[in-house]
Amino acid sequence: xxxxxxxxxxxxxxxxxxxxSKSSAAAARRAKKKQKRIILFIxxxxxxxxxxxxxxxxLKADNIQKIKVDEENIVTKVNENVxxxxxxxxYRNIALFGVDSREGDLGKGTRSDSIIIASINxxxxxIKLCSVYRDTYLNLSNDSYNKxxxxxxxxxxxxxxxxxxxxxxxxxxxxVTIGFDGLTDxxxxxxxxxxxxxxxxxxxxxxxxxxxxxxxxxxxTFTATEGKDYTAVTTAGxxxxxxxxxxxxxxxxxxxNDFERAERQREVLAAVMDQAKKASxxxxxxILDEVLPHVATSLDVDEMVGMxxxxxxxxxxxxxxxxFESNRATxxxxxxxxxxxxxxxxxxxxxxxxxxxNESDYTVSKQVQSYSEKIASDTGYSGVSx
Length: 386
Prior knowledge:
Helix content: 40-55%
Number of helices: 11
Distance between the termini: 111 Å
Radius of gyration: 29 Å
Largest sheet: 6 strands, mixed
CATH topology of the largest domain: Aminopeptidase
Strand content: 15-25%
Order of helices and strands: HHEEEEEHEHEHEHHHEHEEEHHE
Structural class: alpha+beta
CATH class of the largest domain: Alpha Beta
Shape: globular
CATH superfamily of the largest domain: LCP protein
């Protein structure tokens, strides 16, 4: 039998090597295609999940209270030069109102217990929060001056938005109003929020729990039982609060002053956002079920879906209160009781624009200058400086 020569053996080996290489390459291609199919399948599942979430949100939107606001009327009353202010472009400013409504009515006639402006940098996702202290002496948008929360009581969210725009040189057109029952439900659906409670705050927190749970929707009262109707907070320090406890914490007014009260409200709002970022889809669905009946907003479904889609992008970059600590006083103004007085509204608005939009050289509108002069005339800058 004739044995193959060395050259022939080498040729056969080369062919076998090439055959194995082709086989390996084909297997690699098949594996790559399979991997692509798996990736595409995962992407399709994710897209489907997002579409389901969007559809769910659209269906749930019917539960939101609709309080009509005339956006054209709001826009026409924005102060001169504000609409063309380049520094405001790229920001979305939304008014947040917390109201004390036990009967679910979120419109005019309801007392606005909390006013917060959320300014969202749409490029970075940074959110800055600024409380407007509810007793701040401002133009109510009709050339009458009083505590600013009167604007919501008299004209609902529309008048309250116009009031904020006129006094602060802003261009707000959207709002979200939530009743305190809704805040309680949101926090419970999130499994609670973490808050640092001081020793002095504990008795007031518990008293507010008793007051809130011991009053029915029709105004009837009963004696709430600890352990059954509410859970008392007994120790100070950083701890998880349930919905009723956290809402009661927001309402404390006899520790510190109204400025500290607003700070507590911003603290809870930031804690809610932190918990929402960690929430599962089922938790978020539960929150929607619980909170939407207690919410009124001007945002349409597309806008809500867009904002929900960016929730992981958002982070709170700063919070403060208006008027600013270095430029405010408290004192009685005629028969309007104790008010928070902007020592100089013009300077406060300049500080606000620097805080929100990094405008270090902002010049206020002529309207704000005139409101500032009127406030000074009415109050004489009287009061105890903070």
